[in-house]
């Protein structure tokens, strides 16, 4: 029997979930104040900076509104909330590397805005041997999200028909999973749905 260890932090719980299941879902990973600041940060963006999201690798980057209809804006750390978010992800990266030897070298992330009706069909974030993305993070910024608002993230096993996780995009929740392992989709949202999707990468000839 293993007893809970009082010195394990929320970050350690995240590392354990990735080590044991390949995926972790943490409803209160982020503080209310950071989430509120990030939400204000998105709202302060000029609308033209949110552009139709693309699919595929960088060189074959294209938009395909049959697959996804959200709008995105890359996070570059130009504001305090972005810096705070990136600092937290740097800690995640450090712990994944220390405890699981994942060799993560880099993190890229963007805001994503789904308007009512927007969706992202079932996909993998990375195909084995064809991408440098190793670990996906999704952080949600939506207070008071109800089941009837839709926009659930459904996560599947490789050949699975039934989701192993259904996640409402509620403020403060972090989802983290191995990018090559879990197909997932975003069901149509019925109101504006804000998130930050991010990927830890390894260096190499691909990507
Ligand atoms: O927003 C989500 O729940 C997931 C988004 C996603 O799958 C992606 O951007 O690759
Ligand atoms: Fe994805």
TrEMBL record:
Transmembrane segments: none annotated. Keywords: Dioxygenase, Iron, Metal-binding, Oxidoreductase, Vitamin C. It comes from the Bacteria. SMART domains: P4Hc. Residues 100-202 form the Fe2OG dioxygenase domain. InterPro entries: HIF_prolyl_hydroxylases (IPR051559), Oxoglu/Fe-dep_dioxygenase_dom (IPR005123), Pro_4_hyd_alph (IPR006620), Pro_4_hyd_alph_FE2OG_OXY (IPR044862). Its cofactor is L-ascorbate. Pfam families: 2OG-FeII_Oxy_3 (PF13640). This is 2OG-Fe(II) oxygenase. It comes from Zobellella aerophila.
